[in-house]
Amino acid sequence: MIDLATVARPIIGAPMAGGPSTPTLVEAVGAAGGFGMLAAGYLTPAALADAMAATRGPFGVNLFCPPDTEPDLASAQAYRESLAQLAQQYAVELPPVAVAAAADDDHWAEKVDLLCERPPAAVSFTFGLPDAETVERLHARDCTLLATVASVADARAAAALGVDAMCVQGPEAGGHRATRRIADEPEDVPLLELIAAVRAAVSVPVIAAGGLMDTAAVEAVLKAGAVAAQVGTALLLADEAGTSATHRAALTDPQFTETAVTRAFTGRPARGLRNDFVERYDTGAPAAYPAVHQLTRPIRAAAAAARNPAHVHLWAGTGWHHARPAPAADIITRLTPA
Ligand SMILES: Cc1cc2nc3c(=O)[nH]c(=O)nc-3n(C[C@H](O)[C@H](O)[C@H](O)COP(=O)(O)O)c2cc1C
């Protein structure tokens, strides 16, 4: 159980799946007076258990909710064909569509069981909402439940489920947009407006996320009524973050001049630095998650191994150019209003 009003600093270290959110980062955010979140996404249940065991102090865990629809195989096949030339360039085999599109719920049931067995202080959800039974089971273990939402309609649905707080994600956010359904196109109501609209619609506390890179931005969301700010991109260059070398280098590379929201890498909309892969594949990318994630994976892995940022997903929020390498404690302190 976590009472956000009692956390020393109103800063939550965003869960960042794919490497950045290490136990060391989560612990450092907590030790600095904030609250850190482990990212369960893409991990096996055993790897999640290890990460939880390795993290000291109160922390939260973020889960990807299972996909709401099955992918359209024809559009996944067409996308696979469009990737063939790049696959050849890296000399990698792409999985057949039937394999890439096989049912994959990111080990939802096993992860929920694990969290019920060893409850963390908080559990947050993205990519949809949990079922009522999961809410009941985790509440029975005293977990504070946070739904990540990016629209008023989804905030209402989350409130009806009885979650304890909303993480409201604005369009400025790095990484995947917290759209509920795979086919949903993300809205672009700016964060401060979205906070006001969600607060008017639901009565639970609101945490704000998206593009918060300095004290003034944190101050603004607190003034708008949020109880805390959740920051991702600001921590990507933290000493304790597990951000890959290619991703770190790209975040300070002047060749990248903007971010874009694209389905090209995973099939769900996500914001990252606009690179050659986005240029080439954004238009044809189908709303097929996680099939597209599986299809593009060999190319992304080969490009990362070659330290080539052109064909790797480089998640970043709109404020990425303000990210600086530093110990996480310094970043958290710098973000905290006086
Ligand atoms: C590299 C990266 C990975 C992310 N992974 C997750 C995740 O696993 N689960 C989640 O709920 N949000 C994830 N997010 C989104 C964050 O929770 C948050 O909404 C976002 O970082 C806020 O915007 P900012 O990056 O501008 O601070 C990720 C963001 C980034 C940058």
Describe this structure in words.
With 338 residues, the protein is α/β, with parallel strands linked by helices. The protein folds into two domains: 4-67 and 105-244 and 322-335, TIM Barrel; 69-103 and 257-313, no CATH class. It has 13 helices and eleven strands. The protein has an eight-stranded parallel beta barrel with strand order 1-2-3-4-5-6-8-9, surrounded by seven helices. Helix 3 runs parallel beside helix 12 (291-305). The two termini are 26 Å apart. The structure holds flavin mononucleotide. Flavin mononucleotide binds next to strand 7 and strand 9.
Low-confidence stretches: none
* CATH C-level name of the largest domain: Alpha Beta
Strand content: 5-15%
Main sheet strand line-up: 1-2-3-4-5-6-8-9
Sheet having the most strands: 8 strands, parallel, barrel
Helix content: 25-40%
Q: Which structural class fits the helix and strand makeup? A: alpha/beta
What number of structural domains do the residues give? 2
Rg calculated over all Cα atoms: 19 Å
What spatial form do the alpha-carbon principal axes imply?
Answer: globular
Order of helices and strands: EHEHEHHHEHEHEEHEHEHEEHHH
Name the bound molecules.
flavin mononucleotide
What average pLDDT do the residues reach? 97
* Number of DSSP helical runs: 13
Q: How many β-strands, per DSSP?
A: 11
Query: What's the architecture of the largest domain, going by CATH?
Result: Alpha-Beta Barrel
Give the termini separation. Answer: 26 Å
CATH topology of the largest domain: TIM Barrel
Query: CATH homologous superfamily name of the largest domain?
Result: Aldolase class I
